[in-house]
Amino acid sequence: MKRIKISVSKEYEVVIGNKLLDESGALVRAVCPESSTAAVISDDNVAPLYLRRLTKSLENAGFSVVSFVFPHGEKSKNAETYVEILNFLAENRLTRTDLLVALGGGVVGDITGFAAATYLRGVKFVQIPTSLLAMVDSSVGGKTAIDLKAGKNLAGAFCQPELVVCDLDTLDTLSPAFFADGCAEVIKYGVLADKALFEHLAERGQGFDREYVIGRCVELKRDYVTKDEFDTGVRMMLNLGHTVGHAIEKLSAYSISHGYAVAMGMGVVSRAAAAKGICPENCAEAIEKGLEALKLPAATAYTAKELIDPMLSDKKRAGGTVNLIVPYEIGRCGLLPTRVEELEDFVNTGL
After folding, report:
1. Hey, which of 45, 147, 228, 331 would disulfide with 235, CB 3.0 to 4.6 Å?
2. First-to-last CA distance in the chain?
3. CA-CA distances (angstroms) from residue 313 to 136, 253, 275?
4. With b meaning 16 or more CB within 10 Å and e meaning fewer, what string describes 281-302?
5. Which residues 6+ apart lie within 8 Å of 87 measured at CB?
6. Residue 312 pLDDT greater than 90, yes or no
7. Number of helical H runs and strand E runs in the chain
8. How confident is the model at residue 317 (pLDDT cuts 50, 70, 90)?
9. What is the edge-to-edge ordering of all strands in the sheet holding 332-339?
10. Residue 200's Cα: distance from chain center in Å?
11. What CATH number labels 2-173?
12. What is the pLDDT of residues 142-165, one digit of tens each?
């Protein structure tokens, strides 16, 4: 079992290992000794697999447990589901000393965290991510949000969890496509800041060492979040591939998943960076081969003209400038402020 400490406005641990779900009640009790009720929020994919075990573990640790389950998928990460969760919490009379537990992937973690940030002006919550993407990225760092019609994650709050519990055994129930989806965020960290991690992934593909890779991704995210908790500077680097990726998700009505869209976005920006002389050609080629090794796409069928409008709704836009993250070489990236009128040309060179 690996423990990684996150020291920001609130200090907490990310615990990574096998067979942790049945220990989660004791782990949660250790950080929430005064809480009496735990409200578990999950979706209809994850709940049938793990809700009963988690409930038993929490009850064994002395918690009274209530649960709310919503339809899986990005389409549920909206204001309607968010308000349903708030009403559920109120109807079950949760108090400010109680807590929420997010059991599931990134959608569950994001919406549960936003509910925790706003119910009674803030209650505690714990992340128990069950997807690769959530383990390495969305469960750590305190970003919580829901989607609006205009785009992804446009309403949210920063709310750090009390604890993150990553049971590696839950990854065994993921479909190959869903596991690959999480691999996009994994390889992102290698491209950003760790050439050795990137090379391990490119060589091993989806057979990578899970505890090493997930632990290393969490350590890298910890480093970015510690330097910039509220995403105004260096933490923006974590958006590599995301500006184009979010546009692809929106254009597809979210039929293209987040990880696949981010992989496409990384492919677009790396090819554009190579074409513009920002990185060497072999850097873009290596990124494409790395994505291929993880069974991820590196290209999109959408045109630059189609992609521009949703990109202009991206939360990383600042006035007339969109901040793109581009590779200089494997393991080193930078911020490229791009004027709105130059954006279509840049994207077009990467398609």
Report:
1. 228
2. 42
3. 26, 15, 25
4. eebbebbbebbebbebbbebeb
5. none
6. no
7. 13, 12
8. confident
9. 317-318, 321-329, 332-339
10. 21
11. 3.40.50.1970
12. 999 999 998 889 999 999 999 999
3-class SS letters over 129-176? ECCHHHHHHHCCCCEEEEEECCEEEEEEEECCCCEEEEEHHHHHHCCH
Residue 95: CB atoms within 10 A of its CB come to: 11
Domain spans, the chain:
2-173, 176-350
Q: What is the pTM of this model?
A: 0.93
How far apart, in whole angstroms, are the C-alpha atoms of residue 289 and residue 297?
A: 10
Exposed / middle / buried, residue 305 (Cβ in 10 Å: 0-12, 13-18, 19+): exposed
Nearest Cα to Cα of residue 267 among 285, 243, 247, 293: 285
The token duo for 140 is: 């750590």
Half-sphere exposure of residue 62, counting CA atoms within 13 Å on the CB side? 11
**Sorting pLDDT into bands at 50, 70 and 90, what band is 315?**
low
d(CA 139, CA 164): 7
Name residue 64's amino acid. S
Paired tokens of 10: 């609130």
Rounded distance, CA 167 to CA 19, Å?
Answer: 6
Q: Which tokens is 126 given?
A: 């714990």
Contact, 138 vs 102, CB < 8 A?
no
Put the strands of the sheet holding 37-43 in their side by side order.
Answer: 2-7, 11-17, 163-167, 124-129, 99-104, 37-43, 64-70
Cα–Cα nearest to 135, from 175, 180, 105? 105
Nearest in space to 47 (alpha carbons), one of 85, 107, 104, 100: 104
CATH no. for 176-350: 1.20.1090.10
What amino acid is encoded at 210 in this protein?
R
Residue type, 70: F
